[in-house]
Amino acid sequence: MIGIFDSGVGGMTVARAVEQLLPRHQILYFGDLARTPYGSKSPETIIEYSIENTEFLLSQGARVIIVACNSAASVASDTLRRHFNVPIFEVITPAVQEAIAATSSGRIGVIGTRATIRSNIYERTFAAMSPGLRIFSQACPLIVPLVEEGWLDKQETKMILRRYLHPLRQKQIDTLVLGCTHYPLLAAMIRQRMGKGRITLVDSSTAVAENLKAFLQTTPEILSLVNGPDLNRYYVSDVTTAATAIARKIFGRRIDLIKV
Ligand code: DGL
Question: Among 97, 108, 139, 219, which one has the highest count of C-beta atoms within 10 angstroms of its own C-beta?
Answer without folding.
Answer: 108
